[in-house]
Amino acid sequence: MTRAWQRRSSQPFARGAAAALEYLQDEAGYSRAGYHGAVPRDEHDRPLAGHPTGRYVDAHEWVVASFLQHTSRDGDPQLHVHNAILNRVPCEDGEWRTIDSRGLHKARAAASAVGGRVMDEQIARRLGAAYAQRPDGHGRELTGVPQRVKDMFSSRRATITAGVARLAAQYVQRHGRPPSARALFSMAQYVTLDSRRAKPRHEHAVPRAVTLAGWEAEMRAAEIGALADIPAWVVASLDPGTAPGIEALGEAEQRRITLAAVAEVQAARAVWGRSQLLAAIDAQLPGWLGGLDAASVRALLDEVTDQALADGHGVVCLEAPELAETPQALRRADGRSIYSPHDRARYSTRPQLEAEEQLLAAAAERGGPAASADDAAAALGGTASRLAALPGRAKPGGLGREPAPPAPACTWADGLRDGPLPCTGSSPADARSRC
Known about the structure:
14 helices, 10% strand, mainly alpha
């Protein structure tokens, strides 16, 4: 592999990483000043404000060190960029503060989508390489690489998949039912961390020539071709001069993409933000947009996202309007109040809100089927008398029990199980929150 080819193939990764960082600095480049502790509550435990009284200040000039990496921890080919961000940023008042981590977390889905799309557009334009959405919906992949080759050099994924399958089988054997999506996510996290190798120290790193020779030997042994054949499978699989770009999408297809993205984020969560919708829209768009540069990619994704949030697609903004107009002196450059985070708005859809209203109305109806006290106690593994002895007092209308003041010395299920649980509290919900 020549140095010119290395530069040609690695530059799109660097530009994609730069585009993601630029997006983060613009959308999550804020710090918190003043008091950002707990929100005061009234005698009914209701918050007296929607957020703390501290300020959110502009902090868009980050210090970042980027490192281009060529392999995974397991030694598979994996060209990627590590960005180390200094968690101290200069603010407009001259103070250095930490980055608002909540805003950073909200913006990361959109930043990843922008960076990935810029990288793909650069590779497609430079190399004439065609992209397609993965069957599992998790990103795009080059269409010219055979599946056997991708499987061979995805040993990390194979390890995690096998580990999760083993834990899932143990779960079914123990509980008699398949694990939930949340349980599978926790299993994947555990296997990922438990099986992750330590990065080799620089003095122990394998020379590049030895690594390439090892990959070549693996492919020869599996009889799936030569390592040097891979560029020919990928390059020129797309003709940038004739392939239709984003301008070829008709109005009907654009609407289908928007509605599919809205449905995707709504199916994943009841309430969501703009960043998650932007990432879903990027996943619905075709693999080739016309070889757009970084600025055009971001402008396109922002425009389509704004259109999706506008009326006509069933999206409802859940952010309450300002009760009084904020003076200009108390607004940031983004137009928001200095006491409000940048990406505070949350969204849902009308069908979701209507379904929730129906559930609330059904829950308030009387005369429906209900379990007896004995049946409820049996489901919890105890008796009705022990259930009645739990701390707290009955709510009006038979709607359950209000928790008594916390009593850390006892567990809520002491009377229902053989021995205390490893968590304390005064109600089942409180106990779960302390586990």
